[in-house]
Specification:
- The protein has 677 residues and is α+β, with helices and mostly antiparallel strands.
- Among the domains are: 185 residues, Rossmann fold (3-Layer(aba) Sandwich); 145 residues, Orthogonal Bundle (Isoleucyl-tRNA Synthetase, Domain 1); 90 residues, Beta Barrel (OB fold (Dihydrolipoamide Acetyltransferase, E2P)).
- 42% of the residues lie in helices and 18% in strands.
- α17 runs antiparallel to α18.
- The protein is globular.
- It starts with 5 loop residues before the first strand and ends in a 14-residue tail after the last strand.
Length: 677
């Protein structure tokens, strides 16, 4: 690492179709932030880039489900995730997005450079086409029967029931999710990156030159290379994305896997006009922090792209983590089985570092690991409170009790004193060694050894028992304890950045850089420290029970939804059905009902009149986003008084598998009052 002048650290671009959860944090963002803070403390030149990945089919699907545009979706989640990262203390130098003008130009130019160099091959393939919708279908817009397990709701790229990866043409009885019709196969032309032409390069670069990569990363790459690489399409038929910048490519955009990693480059361009020194100079060290589902893209495909372009450096390391499970089950965004970062910050204000600590201490570095609320409570109470917090509190409180808050003079040192002081530098070295090998869980464990050492030192020397009989000895003991405390304010900073700010306030000191750590006279005799406070508070059983209850409710909701899908309601007579007056209405006005979380007050043009309808949809729709939307309305429902508002009618909605509500409306604008028949 010493041969490099600067470091470019990237964190995988989170997909902007939902909020960030603890699995993302444990896999990518906490380890990346820890490592970047470590480099900065060593006074290394480092640039930390990230941003939202905002193209691709899942975003178009979510937009269609909600009756909004893809831009509405990415704007919403870019804002939510950017704020959540900032509130949590993840300090990117820039958090950009792939819908920016800079990115569009950068990605287009990158494609065009490879195109002009003849690095792509053009192939005509057959792809499913929806004759009714008059468009080619991406894999996720096709469902059918899985040939492996018989699941009749399998997608064109994967069966979520058995986990088998599929091609759309593998499905039995394929149907378009756009129209419900059976699609036909139709010729379409696309551009492919011939990965097979880069096999020799990748074999040498990864399998021979990068044997220091993590075994899970190295092993997955070797498996792909040994199986033989195939050309991979860099374009697709879609109306959401960056247009392919060549003639004859109407209706085609850059495939999101090609587009997204270029986002690191465009983000760097946005940050500095001197961007090329980070991407094209050999004395820059490029590190990608990713989750295991991104290994192939960052270790095989993106390097092949960079190699094809010819002027870019390649990553020196790609430390990828495995997956984090939740309470013994795989995290699932569609089933709402997750701990969302923005919700954690609301439920546990001021406890950002507790989550950082737990996710690092339990990081899935070599295998999948499990997050449990009881483990978070235990680590907080038994480690952060009882070990780190306890030592700091005792050191500061005793200093105020014996010396009025002034650092006492150190006297003659015993062999035990010297052994304790020498251990500071030894622990620093062990943390450094672990950090440099991206063993961050081990680095945190080693750092906590200094707090354990401090507790043991106080317990063995018992200054409270010596204060009357040997006050000079107590001065030395307390001086050493304070030096350990000051060292902790630096050693723990990469892991617990908000906590060490409080610790430095207790000690009345500025930040101490990493290179100074190991100096055993960080606090001078006579230095005045402030009163102690609590670094960490205990987490009670009731707080954990509330979180477990929330997860249990999620399980019940998922079970109920599955039951609703599986079980039909009792039959009704035709005459009863015909009593319902169901029409299309247009929302004219929308506002939240005061002192409620779920209610919106809507003014709807029904074609018959303009009436007020109160609907419990505020958690899923922003008032200003739904004005002008056409909805399905049960017109002749008896009026009800809701929160003092007379509601005349009911907006009909559909509940998706993830529990979110979707509007039901016509595919094309119709006259308000049009009857459903």
């Amino acid at each position: 690492m010493t041969d490099y002048k600067r470091h470019l650290i990237t964190a995988a671009l989170p997909y902007a179709n939902g909020p960030v959860h603890i699995g993302h944090l444990a896999g990518v963002y906490v380890p990346a932030d820890i490592y970047v803070r470590y480099l900065r403390m060593k006074a290394e030149e480092v640039l930390f880039v990230c941003g939202s990945d905002e193209h691709g089919v899942p975003i178009t699907i979510k937009a269609k489900q909600e009756g909004v545009t893809p831009q509405d979706i990415v704007d919403r989640y870019h804002k939510i995730n950017k704020k959540a990262f900032a509130d949590f203390g993840i300090e990117f130098d820039i958090y950009s997005r792939t819908t920016s003008e800079t990115h569009a130009k950068t990605a287009s130019d990158f494609f065009r450079t490879l195109y002009d160099k003849g690095k792509f091959i053009e192939k005509t393939t057959q792809q499913y086409f929806d004759e009714e919708a008059q468009q080619f279908l991406a894999d996720r817009y096709i469902i059918g029967t899985c040939p492996k397990c018989g699941n009749d709701r399998a997608y064109g790229d994967q069966c979520e029931a058995c986990g088998t990866s599929l091609n759309a043409t593998d499905l039995l009885n394929p149907k378009s999710t756009l129209s419900g019709s059976t699609p036909t196969l139709k010729d379409t032309k696309h551009w492919f990156l011939p990965l097979d032409q880069y096999e020799a390069f990748l074999k040498q670069w990864i399998l021979s030159e990068n044997t220091h990569w993590r075994p899970n990363v190295y092993g997955q790459c070797k498996s792909w290379i040994d199986a033989g690489l195939q050309p991979r399409a860099v374009s697709r038929d879609l109306n959401w994305g960056i247009p392919v910048p060549v003639e004859g490519a109407d209706g085609k955009v850059l495939y999101v896997w090609f587009d997204a990693p270029i986002g690191y480059i465009s983000a760097t361009k946005e940050f500095t006009p001197d961007w090329e020194k980070y991407w094209k100079q050999k004395d820059t060290r490029l590190i990608h922090f990713i989750g295991k589902d991104n290994i192939v893209f960052h270790c095989i495909i993106f390097p092949a792209m960079l190699k094809a372009e010819g002027s870019y450096i390649l990553p020196e390391n790609v430390p990828s983590n495995e997956f984090l499970n939740l309470e013994g089950e795989k995290i699932s965004t569609s089933r709402n089985w997750a701990v969302w970062l923005h919700e954690y910050l609301e439920d546990f204000p001021g406890k950002e570092d507790v989550l950082r600590y737990v996710l690092c201490a339990n990081a899935p570095e070599t295998k999948d690991n499990d997050f449990t609320w009881k483990d978070l409570q235990a680590r907080n109470n038994n480690e952060l409170v009882a070990i780190l917090g306890n030592f700091v509190n005792r050191s500061v409180v005793l200093t105020h009790k014996y010396y009025g808050g002034e650092v006492p003079e150190r006297g003659e040192l015993t062999a035990f004193d010297n052994e304790t002081l020498n251990a500071i530098a030894q622990i620093k070295a062990s943390v450094e060694s672990s950090m440099e090998q991206f063993r961050l869980r081990e680095a945190l464990k080693n750092a906590m050894e200094l707090a354990r050492l401090g507790n043991k030192y106080l317990a063995d020397t018992e200054p409270w028992a010596l204060q009357k009989s040997n006050p000079e000895r107590v001065k030395t003991i307390m001086n050493i304890s304070l030096q350990i405390t000051a060292s902790l304010s630096t050693l723990m900073e990469p892991f617990l950045p908000k906590t060490v700010v409080k610790l430095r306030e207790f000690l009345n000191i500025e930040a101490i850089d990493w290179n100074t750590l190991g100096n055993t006279n960080l606090l001078q005799t006579g230095h005045k420290i402030n009163q102690a406070g609590l670094l960490f508070g205990k987490i009670e059983d009731s707080e954990m029970d509330a979180q477990l209850k929330k997860l249990e409710q999620t399980k019940l909701q998922n079970a109920a939804q599955q039951q609703q899908v599986a079980i039909q309601k009792p039959a009704v007579s035709y005459d009863d059905f015909m009593k319902m007056d169901i029409r299309i209405g247009t929302i004219l006005e929308a506002e939240k009902v005061a002192k409620t979380k779920k209610l919106l007050k809507l003014k709807v043009d029904t074609g018959v009149d303009q009436r007020t309808v109160v609907s419990g949809i505020a958690e899923y729709f922003e008032p200003d986003k739904i004005i002008g939307k056409q909805v399905t309305l049960l017109l002749n429902l008896e009026p009800r008084n809701i929160k003092g508002i007379e509601s005349k009618g009911m907006i009909l909605m559909v509940e998706d598998a993830d529990g979110t509500l979707k509007m039901i409306g016509p595919e094309v604008q119709v006259k308000p009052g049009s009857c459903i028949s």
